[in-house]
Amino acid sequence: xxxxxxxxxxxxxxxxxxxxxxxxxxxxxxxxxxxxxxxxxxxxxxxxxxxxxxxxxxxxxxxxxxxxxxxxxxxxxxxxxxxxxxxxxxxxxxxxxxxxxxxxxxxxxxxxxxxxxxxxxxxxxxxxxxxxxxxxxxxxxxxxxxxxxxxxxxxxxxxxxxxxxxxxxxxxxxxxxxxxxxxxxxxxxxxxxxxxxxxxxxxxxxxxxxxxxxxxxxxxxxxxxxxxxxxxxxxxxxxxxxxxxxxxxxxxxxxxxxxxxxxxxxxxxxxxxxxxxxxxxxxxxxxxxxxxxxxxxxxxxxxxxxxxxxxxxxxxxxxxxxxxxxxxxx
Length: 330
What we know:
This protein has 330 residues and is an alpha/beta fold.
C-alpha cells in the first residue's frame, strides 16, 4: 500500500540574501533528495516554506525539514530568536530533521551550544560512526559524507544521542528522547548535496566558488589546506610537491591546478591532458549518494513509525509503597 508523506521544507535564509542565493534550486535539491531516498512504496509531497515570512506552526505537514541557511547559528539576532520560537512550537509534536543550520537549531533547543571552527570544512570528508546505522555501517566504521561547514555543536547538555562524529564535530545527532519520543534528528553534513545528480552539481558549484574565493584572497581567514586533504595522492603529485598550495593566491595558481583542485567532481574536463581521478571521483560520488540516501531514509522510516503508532495517553496510577519485607525480594 502506497504511503503519502507530506514534508514541509523550511528555509530560514532571509530574503535580503536572495541575490546571492537561489531559493528555487535549494527547494529542488532538498525535495529531490527526500524523494530519491524514500522506499518505493512512499510518495513524498513537498511544500516549500520561507520560515521568516510564514507562520510555520500553522503548516499542516507530516514532517518538517529545516534546511541550511546563511543565517548564523551563533550570532545573536532577531531572526535567530524568531526561528527558535517557531520550531520550538512544533519540535515535540511533528518529526523534525535539521540539516546544517537546522542541526544547530535542534541542538540549541535541546540545551547545547554552537561554536565556530578554526577552518572551513568542505568536500567528501571521513566520519566515524558511533552506533550501528542501517545503510551507513556499524559502530566504529569510517564513511565519507559531503560537508560544507564552519560551525560545530557541542553536546554540553548531554541531550543528544551521537550517531556519527568527525574531527569537526558531531555529524549525526538524535534528539528523539529529549523531545518526548518524537523523531528529531540533526545532520551537520549535507545529504542533499550527494543524494541526486542535481544536488551533486549544486555541490560542485559551491565547491568551485569556495576555491576561487579562497585563492583570490576574499576569505583571508581560510586557506586551501582543507581542500588538499580530500584529494588523492595522484592528484597531489600532479599539483606538484615543490609547490606549497596552502599559501598560493590569485595568479600564482594555474588553470590546470585549479582543475586538479576540483578533481573530486568527475565531470571536470581537462583540455590538454587526460582526466585524472575520474574513476576515483565516480566511486566517491556513488558512496556519498548511498550513504546520504541511507541517512535520510533512516529519518523517514522513524517518522512513518511514529505516525502509525497510536498515541497512548499516560494512565494515572496510585503510587504503591512497598513494605520492607517486599523490598528484600528484588
